[in-house]
Amino acid sequence: MLKFHAKGARSVKQRGVTLIEILVSLLLLSFGLLSLAGMQAYSLAAQKNASNRAIASMLANELAELIRLNQKGFADGKYDVSKLTDAALAGDAGCEFPDCTSTDTLAEADLASFRRLVRNQLPKGGVELSRPGGSSEHAEIWIVWEEAAVLNTTQGGSEVSTEVHSENCPTTAKNLSTLPRCFYMKVQL
To answer: Which of 60, 83, 97, 162 has the fewest CB atoms lying closer than 10 Å?
Structure first.
């Protein structure tokens, strides 16, 4: 049997139900807003990574043009370089025009300038250039950078294998402690 209040026809058992419904609604709304904020952070990081890829593409093309301009220096291995560290950048000297009179000093100046450009354009950016089999006609260029941490996880929140993101990376980049992103370009002179 239902009990009635003197002021109205409400049941005693239903007192406070509206408050609980509001609290549950607020809880569900807060979870929705948290997931929306996570999607926004992922979206911004993916946009930045796309921008970094475009910059890496531009930089690889620029390095390809540098080695095309100094093919003798390239054939002599003066452009061979592995991934850079901050310590490697400190010793860059190079030469300035018109003092770059040999292919060796020109290659040294090109690499010094290019290394700084990569470091300034990409987060923890680096470059690796090799000549497969010592070839003087082919070059392999990798532009390497560190991506945003939010892109290192899957939707479930577990870490992604480095093989997934670094499949285009050279061996030296795959051995880094942080997950690299790489842009690979093969050049024929």
So the answer is: 97
Tens digit of each residue's pLDDT (9 = 90 or more) over 70-96: 999 898 888 888 755 444 444 455 566
Distance from C-alpha of 180 to C-alpha of 152, rounded to nearest angstrom:
10
- The DSSP letter of residue 158 is P
pTM above the 0.85 mark? no
Query: Could you report the per-residue pLDDT of 135-154, keeping only the tens digit for each?
Result: 888 999 999 888 766 665 54
Closest CA to 152 of 34, 49, 35: 49
52-82 residues labelled b (16+ CB within 10 A) or e (exposed): bbebbeebbeebbebbeebeebbbeebbebb
Q: What ranges do the domains of the chain cover?
A: 49-188
